[in-house]
Amino acid sequence: MRPAPHGGGRTRPYRLSRRGTGGLPLREVRPGRGARDGGGGVSAYAPHPGRFAGRKAVVTGAGQGIGLAVARRLSAEGAELVLVDRAEPVRDAAAGLTAHAVLADLETYEGARSAIDGSLDVLGRIDVLVNNVGGAINFKPFTEFSAEEIQAEITRSLMTTLWSCRAVLPTMAAQGTGVIVNVSSAATRGVHRIPYSAAKGGINALTASLAFECAEHGVRVVATAPGGTEAPPRRVSRGTPAPRNAQEKGWFEAHIAQTLSSSLLKRYGTLDEQAAAICFLASDEASYITGTVLPVAGGDLG
């Protein structure tokens, strides 16, 4: 959702709602400088033309949400792209960006290897990998999770990134250069999504350890930790079941309330804000940054 335009020298408040969660109202907030400055200038998150000229980039989970926003920005900044997702809508996204699409399920090493091999077939090399697959499936107290549900959360939100890192690193090490940007989460501390929190904590550890191990090969490994982010309704469901009763609805709403209260700015971020941070870390402007997890969560440090 874009901030409301300025008018009469004053900013106008606008209402945010968490899409895909029943449109729960959050609160009135004042827009920042995300869309235009007071003089009608360029967006604070406008792409930097040519920043990725000649670079070959792969974005996973690129069919919607943050992944699609990152792909659009990288394309606008000159990168040649492969968009990876497990669902058909990624083909439409790629066509809209004159990019390549690869369908793959990254929950297995074989799927990740297939995605990287397919990307190399069309790109020749990989300079940037953005690992964006993940997302909480269930929202309830830890003791309500079955063993199968816990495993599903870890597989979705940790193993997809771990397998993709394992698949791409031999190529980047052989090149002597490369950047991996992992999309973690500020929800490493939160209510009613503990398996997801554990998975994202694992991504933070993976990022730090891989950066230490891969530096000698010229490969940087970094991450962002997004907080709550406004996005259109999902084109492909994560499989989150609808609440069956008032108790389950209360569990879900508690996690929404905690997400908002943890943000010092008391609002959700935008897809542009998340993509801007990810692309910065992937760029040469961040050439002396590795092993770092950058919170992009309005002050919520997880």
TrEMBL record:
Residues 1-10 have a biased composition (Gly residues). The keyword Oxidoreductase applies. Residues 27-36 have a biased composition (Basic and acidic residues). GO terms for biological process: fatty acid elongation. InterPro entries: BenD, NAD(P)-bd_dom_sf, Sc_DH/Rdtase_CS, SDR_fam. The keyword Transmembrane does not apply. Residues 1-42, 225-248 are annotated as: Disordered. Keywords: Oxidoreductase. GO terms for molecular function: oxidoreductase activity, acting on the CH-OH group of donors, NAD or NADP as acceptor. PROSITE patterns: ADH_SHORT. Belongs to the short-chain dehydrogenases/reductases (SDR) family. NCBIfam families: BenD, PRK12823.1. This is 1,6-dihydroxycyclohexa-2,4-diene-1-carboxylate dehydrogenase. It comes from Streptomyces himastatinicus ATCC 53653.
